[in-house]
Amino acid sequence: MPLRSRLLVAGVGAVLLSSGCGGGGEPASTAGANGRPLSAGGEGPAEEAPEPVQGRMGQTVRGKELAYTVREQECGVRKIRVGVALGYTADGQYCIYTLDVEVLSKVPLEFQPHAQRAYTTDGSQYNGKRLSGREVEPPEDDLSPGQRTTGQLVFELPADRRIVRLELRPGNPMLAADRARGPEAVITVG
């Protein structure tokens, strides 16, 4: 068999083996030698997420990595202007929260609006939206140790719903390790 064909066969075999196809029929273990789940990196046991710090609107809530102060709330907003004639129109309503964030961690962090959650009186969950324009500006994404930033978190929800609490967290929901992390702070707003 020519070298090129042998390399192709070897490459296909390696892909099949690494993807779990080609034998065994059993799922790969996600547990370490002690039977406890592994962390997202597969090294050692996964850490239990600490209980989130509880607080109320207007109060500074200090988590492990960030401090949060939700200062203002405006719900019932139908349109957010981007320019003179352009804007975003809600199917129901936008709720806009002005938020101060301070980095307590000694390492840089991300704070993504779409990683934040709002919960209504009926328990429905809504993710934050990244909207910016003349009327709203989200907090900065990439934060350095000690940095403070202020911006607006925007949630879109049906007009007949009322938000009662926000769950806030550092991180990027596109990263598995950040998705697995629970909220750092729970703020009662309603």
Automatic annotation (TrEMBL):
Keyword Amino-acid biosynthesis on this protein? Answer: no
- Could you tell me which residues belong to the region Disordered? 26-58, 120-148
Q: Which UniProt keywords apply?
A: Signal
Entries under PROSITE patterns matching the protein: PROKAR_LIPOPROTEIN
- Domain DUF4352 intervals: 57-171
The UniProt entry, under Gene3D superfamilies, shows: 2.60.40.1240
Matches recorded under InterPro entries: DUF4352 (IPR029051), Immunoprotect_excell_Ig-like (IPR029050)
One Pfam family of this chain = DUF4352
**Could you identify this protein by its name?**
DUF4352 domain-containing protein
Which organism is this entry from? Answer: Actinomadura madurae
Its taxonomic path starts at: Bacteria, Bacillati, Actinomycetota, Actinomycetes, Streptosporangiales
